[in-house]
Amino acid sequence: MDPTEQLVIKVLLLVGVGVATVLLTRSSAGARHQAIRRAGLVLFVIVTVAIIIQPSLVSGIARAVGVGRGTDLLLYVLAVAFVWFLAAYYGRMRAMNRQITALTRALALTQAQLRREDSA
Amino acid sequence: MANEDVAVLVPVYNEARVVADVVAELVGRFGHVVCVDDGSTDGSDAAARAAGATVLRHATNLGQGAALQTAIEHALTLPDVSYLVTFDADGQHQVSDAEEMLELARREDLAIVFGSRFLDERTQAGLLKKLVLKTAVWVTNQSTGMRLTDAHNGLRVIRRDAAAGVHLTQNRMAHASEIVLQLGRTGLPWREHPVHLLYTDYSKSKGQSLLNAVNILFELTFR
Question: Do the interacting molecules here have an ipTM over 0.90?
C-alpha cells in the first residue's frame, strides 16, 4: 500500500498520538492544562451534538480527511482518544502517588517525634 | 562507643523472620538504629522495636526508596548524628563492613562511602545475578557520570552534609541509582569500599531477579 494514501488522516492520528506521548512524559496539573482540557470538552460536545443531529456529517468529514467511511473515522478517533485518556490518567496517578508518599512520610516522622517527646 | 554519632538506617518490609537478629547486632555498636517499617503485615515493626530499634512506620507500603528517604529525614532531626549508614534488613550485610567504612570516612574525611561487592572476590554471585547487577551499574554510571563498580548495594555511609542533599523520589527499586546521582551532585568526596554480601537462602528468595532489572530500567527511563 502506498504510504501517502490517506495522508491527511495519518497525519492527524500521528499528531494525536504525539500529543498523548508528550502529556505522558510531562507532569500534568496547572490551570493552563485544565483550560485546554475544558476547551476540548466543549469542542467534543459541539461536534457530538452536530453529528447526532446530522449523522451524514461524519461521512462528510471522513471523506474530507481521506477516510472511506464514517465508521472507520470514529474507530480511529476512539483509539487515539483512549491513548490520550491513558496518558492523562497516568499523570494523575503519579501526582497522587507523590501526595500519598508525602502524607505517609509526614505521619511516620510525626509519630516518631511524638514518641520521642513522650519519653523525654 | 566508637560510633555514638552514627544512625544506622534499616528499611524493613515483611522481614519479621530476620529483622530482630539484624537489629540486635547493630544496637549497642551504633548510637541510633532506625528502622522504617514500610507497611509490613507480618509484625516486623514489633520485632524490630523489641530488639531495640527506633521504629518509624509507613501507614501503607510505598517501596524501599520511600522508606530510605523517611529514615534519612528522621536521622537529620537527631542533632547528635554525624554519619548515616544505610543497611539492608535481610541480613546480607556485615556489621564489620559498616564499621570499616565509617573508619575510612573519618580517617580520609570522606562524605560518602559506597559498599561494593565487586572490589574483591569474597562475594559469590551467580552468573545471571552478576549480569543483572553489572547492567544496573552500567546504566547508573551512564546517567550519573560516576564510576562505580556496584550500584545496587544497600550498604552506604553518608555524612550528614551529604545526606541533606538526598531527596529520593523513586519509591521503588530505581532509588539505588537515584541516590548515587544525588550524592554525586553534592560534589563531596566519595570512595568505594569492598564489602562481603552473604547470600543466604532467605536473602536469595527476596533478591534481585531479572524481572527486577527490567523494572529498574523502566523506572529510570520513564521517571
Answer: no
